[in-house]
Amino acid sequence: MKEQGSILLVSLVLLTILTIAGVSSIRLSGLQEKMIASYHNEQLNFRVAEVGVLEAENYVTDTFISSNAFSAACTNGLCFSGSGAGDPGACVPGTDKPWEDEAVWNKARTANIELEDHPSVAKFIVELRCYLPREIDGPDPDPLNLTDWATYYRITVLAAGIGSRSRVMLQTTYKKNQ
User: Fold this and answer.
1) d(C-alpha 145, C-alpha 65), whole Å
2) pLDDT for the residue numbered 4
3) Run of H or E including 159
4) In degrees rounded to 5, what are phi and psi of residue 8?
5) What pairs with residue 168 in β-bridges?
6) Which residues of 97-122 are buried (b: 16+ CB within 10 A; e: fewer)?
7) How is 27-65 classified by DSSP, letter by letter?
8) pLDDT for 112-136, tens place per residue?
9) Is 135:155 a contact under the CB 8 Å cutoff?
10) 70: Cβ–Cβ under 8 A, 6 or more apart, which residues?
11) Angle at 127 between CA 174 and CA 67, to 5 degrees
12) Using DSSP, how many helices (H) and how many strands (E) does the chain show?
């Protein structure tokens, strides 16, 4: 009679161990699925940000943007915190980092992007970083002649359209010949 009770006890202990192992493997499997989904969303957001950079560069290329349109308040996503924005000889870029201010992204420009049937929005700001000589190997540019200079921009893109937790920010610089 004692032997039958001990077999029952051993069987219950083994069943409990198998149940705990099964529940643990199910939880681990669920965690792996969440990690894979998060990684996939992050990769999609990265691609959205890359396309956003291209859209922002196209905006800068195709749009005449007066130096007066840029401000420290980043109105319409156009930022400049330095001095002398309209004068290549006197322009000094600021040291502000507007992309770190969450409120700036409410004023940012947007690009609607669809990847893998997921509609997304990439927000971007364009910072005026002053001017560069139009021709690097050419003669020294005349500070009074705007056609000797190219406008120099920093573009920052924020993509957060796919998945609620993943946000990707990319930056690039862009030189636009007048």
Assistant:
1) 18
2) 65
3) strand 149-159
4) -60, -45
5) 159
6) ebbeeeebbebbbebebebeeeebeb
7) HHHHHHHHHHHHHHHHHHHHHHHHHHHHHHHHHHHHS--
8) 888 777 788 899 999 999 999 988 8
9) no
10) 78, 79, 80, 85, 127, 128
11) 95
12) 1, 5
> Model confidence over 138-168: pLDDT tens digits?
788 888 888 889 999 999 999 986 666 778 9
- Residue 12 confidence (pLDDT): 85
SS3 81: coil
- Give just the sign of the alpha carbon dihedral 102, 108, 112, 114: negative
Give me the residue label for tokens 């069987």: 11
Q: What is the pLDDT of residues 14-23, one digit of tens each?
A: 889 988 888 8
CA atoms of 64 and 82, how far apart (whole Å): 20
> What length is written for the chain?
178
**Interatomic CA distance for residues 173 and 142, integer angstroms:** 23
pLDDT above 90 (res 177): no
Percent of the chain with pLDDT over 90: 48
> How far is residue 113's CA from residue 161's CA, in Å, rounded to a whole number?
9
